[in-house]
UniProtKB/TrEMBL annotation:
Domain of life: Bacteria
Record field: transmembrane: 83-116, 151-167, 179-206, 226-251, 283-306, 318-336, 343-364, 376-395
Alphabetized GO MF terms: pentosyltransferase activity
The protein's name: 4-amino-4-deoxy-L-arabinose transferase
Length: 521
């Protein structure tokens, strides 16, 4: 196979839509904005993660505690607060909460698209940059992550900047400013979600390639201090959040603050990686259940890409060594953890598409050679594929309608006449959309229905919301009021007179009270 620069055919002979994007790269950002922003504002939070992050951000905005996040007055220790900071800030600036939740992922997608284009252009040529961006926007997982209101979409911003800065330094440098920018981005990624350091894994294949004399990698001997300064930049970025938090906990001296530190720094990081208590999957999970679906349509080209990659590696091309090595290391990292989710391997996608992009023009010419009808079919399928993602952005929210729990809590407030509501066996949406004062005993506390029964005995003016599955354990069904409506969950409202006398709890437990001071919806 010829050199990649010759394989691309040269920009002088470039025709078709790739040429248009090459001449006007802003069209790529417009395409990304259309695809990732389709339906923005129509969607409501549709899962517990989105409801949780939006609720934490709004509660942070209400109570003014920006260092230690809370969920219905209970400390929320699972994630650092940076993503919630941004959502809260957007809401404070006047953005609707249902838009603010999804803007970080949307913006991250634009940045990732721009980074891939610029890297492809600098490492090969403009057409490769266009191919890299289009491959990224064509991949199913791009929409599965960046259209959701979750931290992983926001994490893509820091991964992309870290990825970009390191490659500018390792392959186009020395570029120490870009390296330090990458280190700062990884620091922000770590305090957004612990795995923000992932771009640093490409230093492993880079070090090997430099030692073995591979082409396309920049040697930087005698720069130990400059390399170590990058680590200090990362630590200094982490300190922007961690130092104020440590000072706050030290000054307060409370057990809750110390428990939060232990949870966020150890329990949710090293302990979760080594022995996950959620989303446990076998080692082959990503390769059998995730990649075949979420990395479509990239997988269709792998039978041709793998031999081509092998030839490039045989020529000791360090660009492919670092990119493919990094993809392999990211997959290995998440495979070693017992806890796995579909979106975990999304950070590897930019490296994969950038390794595929230089070979795509050669592959398309091979497919189209002597078969013009194949070219026409490919163009039609590509247009239909992108059009389907654009249309799905509008169809999904319209089909889903409003949030089920928002409608439920409006009905509960009406039926209970705004009385203080005791939650048992609740989820984040019940707190997020509550329209009355709440009492609860912690989200994951066992025997909540028993605690609710005890509470009602001493607070007969209150009302408890109990699920159909737990109702008859402590309450009489005939004295309970079913919350009517087309809801996925069946809930009942009970007062003290519905107590069946079978539930008693004398163990001490924490009780939390919370109320939204104003409606955000």
């Amino acid at each position: 196979m010829a050199d990649v620069g010759r394989l691309s055919g040269g920009e002088a002979r470039h025709r078709g839509f790739l040429a248009r994007f090459s001449r006007s790269p802003w069209l790529l950002l417009l395409l990304a904005a259309l695809l990732l922003g389709a339906g923005l504002g129509l969607r409501h939070p549709s899962n517990v993660d989105e409801e949780r992050f939006l609720g934490v951000a709004l509660e942070m905005l209400q109570n003014g505690d920006w260092l230690i996040p809370h969920r219905a007055a209970e400390i929320y220790p699972d994630k650092p607060p940076v993503f919630m900071w941004l959502v809260a800030l957007l809401v404070r600036l006047g953005v609707s909460p249902h838009v603010a939740l999804f803007l970080p992922g949307f913006f991250a997608g634009l940045v990732a698209t721009a980074c891939l284009y610029d890297l492809g252009k600098r490492l090969w040529n403009r057409r490769v940059g266009v191919c890299a961006s289009l491959l990224f926007l064509a991949t199913y997982q791009t929409y599965a992550v960046l259209r959701d209101g979750q931290i992983d979409g926001f994490l893509c911003l820091w991964i992309s900047l870290g990825f970009y800065g390191l490659l500018r330094h390792l392959m186009l440098g020395p570029a120490w400013r870009w390296f330090y920018l990458a280190c700062a981005a990884m620091g922000m990624g770590i305090i957004s979600k612990g795995v923000g350091f992932l771009p640093a894994l490409m230093l492993i294949p880079y070090a090997y390639g430099v030692r073995q004399g591979w082409k396309g990698l920049v040697r930087m001997p005698g720069q130990a201090r400059a390399w170590w300064l990058g680590l200090l930049v990362t630590l200094a970025t982490i300190a922007l959040w961690l130092v104020p938090l440590l000072i706050r906990v030290a000054l307060d001296g409370g057990a809750d603050g110390r428990a939060y530190l232990d949870d966020i720094l150890l329990h949710q990081t090293a302990k979760r990686f080594a022995s996950a208590w959620q989303h446990q999957e076998p080692f082959w999970y990503f390769f059998v259940k995730v990649i075949p679906q979420y990395w479509m349509p990239l997988l269709l080209a792998l039978p041709w890409m793998v031999p081509a990659w092998r030839r490039q590696l045989a020529r000791r091309d360090g660009r492919y060594l670092v990119l493919l090595g990094w993809v392999a290391l990211v997959l290995l990292f998440f495979t070693l953890s017992s806890g796995k989710r579909k979106l975990y391997i999304f950070p590897a996608l930019p490296g994969l598409v950038l390794a595929m992009a230089p070979l795509l023009p050669w592959l398309l010419r091979r497919w189209f050679a002597g078969r013009p009808w194949v070219r026409k079919v490919f163009v039609v399928l590509a247009v239909l594929w992108f059009s389907a993602w654009f249309a799905r952005g509008f169809i999904e929210p319209l089909r889903a309608g409003g949030n089920d729990r928002q409608q439920l809590m409006a009905e509960v407030a009406q039926e209970s006449q705004g009385a203080e509501l005791v939650l048992a066996g609740w989820r984040e949406g019940h707190w997020l959309y509550a329209r009355q004062p709440l009492v609860h005993f912690g989200l994951d506390t066992p025997n909540q229905v028993v605690m609710a029964a005890e509470w009602l005995r001493s607070h007969p003016q209150d009302v408890a919301m109990i699920s159909a599955d737990d109702l008859e354990r402590c309450f009489q069904r005939e004295r309970a009021l079913e919350v009517k409506g087309k809801f996925e969950e069946q809930w009942f409202l009970v007062r003290a007179d519905a107590d069946n006398g079978q539930c008693h709890d004398v163990t001490p437990h924490e009780t939390y009270r919370f109320a939204w001071r104003k409606s955000f919806f």
